[in-house]
Amino acid sequence: MDRRRILQFAGLSALSSLSGIRVAYGQSAPAQPRLIVVMLRGAMDGLSLVAPYTEDAYYQERPTIAIARPGTPDGLLPLTERFGLHPAFAPLLPHWEAGQLAFIHASGSPDGTRSHFDAQDYMESATPGRKSTPDGWLNRLAGVIAGPRATPAAQRLQAVSLGPVMPRIFAGEAAVASLASGNAALRPSALDRPEVAQAVARLYDGDDRLSQVVREAAVTRGEIMGKLASDDPKADMGALPLNALPVDATHLGQLMARDARIRLAFMPVGGWDTHANQGAGKGQLANRFGVLAQSLAALAQSLGPRLAETSILVMSEFGRTVRQNGTLATDHGHGNVAFVLGGGVKGGRVLGEWPGLDPSARYEGRDLAITTDFRDIIAELLEERFRLADAQLARVLPAMERRKRVGLFA
Fold it and tell me: Which pTM was predicted?
């Protein structure tokens, strides 16, 4: 490798770290509607988020961590005659009442693994049980909706990933911009200084592919900074919690509200592996639910009118055990609850076939059974919102043997 090539790779690394943007090879294009996927890494306890308060088994199996019935202190917020919402999720209750929020219970991956690594891999590749899939389903979707004639300007900001590491779901050929977490995305970097930008431009003035990628990354950095720097910093940071998630969600929503080219976004959220001292209506898990609910409410608000054309899909790799463990929490399970927030959805409903918590109905005698494949949820979103044809859907969700209607839009 010659000296110029070494300098180029060093410069590309510096550009990625300083700008908070990573550009992958491929193509993308601007359009609407949009999809934001929120992955709750660590296996969120869906039986605490949306609890079946009419089932005695729920309270028998969770004598200290079950959420109290509606109408009692720290009790569930009633959703239906069977299900109640964790009280910490109250910030999203207005969206439920407005018909913009729907839950899909007893959903998840048909693969039975209880490994976080494997389950997340399968959910992000959308090929449960198959580790050889080279790309993620959001990247495949980016390629499908971009089409073969997307212009370079349209390619730069079609897909955005929040965080410094490109996730499995965005692995592949289509271009993805990486937005730094927290306030780092708003801080000026050395690349924002004219003399540094000019030096980088001189270094990458060639016609090779690497030079083209660096130039596109610099333009993307300028576009993101221009859209977010116009906000009043006091309004961004004033009353926001110390936890970075509400800030990240707000910034992502603002960016998508201001740039119609962004169609796809991914936001991973950690901290859901609750093996000890989980709590009930209050406690460790309740605090996390509160931050998540506030963040999703902030995301919806910052999208503004764009929420009507945006679907926010929230999933976790698997659920938790029905029975609480010896450390007043739950262990790795199977079925879970997913939910969709945004425009077009016919919300105010808990969807999916409920199998019940009777021991005879549980998966392997211990976990909530799965009656809705998570890919059925994705398929319906892509059919109804993105209007994908069968051949296009097969590219995004390969080797999917069965499909059923979830009813998100019916």
Answer: 0.81
